[in-house]
Amino acid sequence: MNEYELVSIMHPRLNADETTAAIANIQSQIEANGGEMLSTDVWGRRRLAYPINHLLEGTYVLMTFKLPPQGAPVVEALLRISEQVIRHLLVRGIIPFQGHDRRDRDRDDRDREDRDDRGRDRDERDDRDRDRGPMASAAPDADNPEMAEAEAATAAD
């Protein structure tokens, strides 16, 4: 028997009792095909990332179970024709959740801070910015003609 994860999105028009009945129907189909339920986790109603059939939200459900390989196509066929399920994903294998470690998050923040707005490293800026020097990048000061003359003399050298 293979282990499976099933994430399904239930139609938002279903109330709590109808959602529970739809989940129980899926579980009974899994068990009827020789499967064994490991866990069921109802994540609740959430906003969809993009509209599906003009729907903007749905109830997310995660199920883990064991099922013989020949039972998976039967369960998927049931999910495809069900009007209560608007989207599903059946994956063989259970991937344990390993939360982010604090050290990983700090490293990601450091990587992000070392980049400028265009995604380039700050140490690898355009050569022309380094070659011009600090005064060449600033516009000449119109209020101070002596400063403009000094800059022009420096640029001529």
Describe this structure in words.
About 35% of the residues lie in helices and about 30% in strands. It contains five helices and four strands. A hairpin with a 2-residue loop joins strand 2 and strand 3. The mean pLDDT is about 80.
Q: Roughly what fraction of the amino acids lie in strands? A: 25-35%
Q: What is the overall number of helices? A: 5
Distance between the termini: 81 Å
Number of strands: 4
Tell me roughly what share of residues is in helical segments: 25-40%
Largest sheet: 4 strands, antiparallel
**Rg, alpha carbons:** 30 Å
Which ranges are low-confidence, i.e. pLDDT below 50, for 5 or more consecutive residues? none
Question: How do the helices and strands follow one another from N- to C-terminus?
Answer: EHEEHEHHH
Shape: elongated
Quaternary organisation of the protein chains: single chain
Overall mean pLDDT: 80
Question: Structural class, from secondary structure content?
Answer: alpha+beta
Biggest sheet: strand arrangement: 2-3-1-4
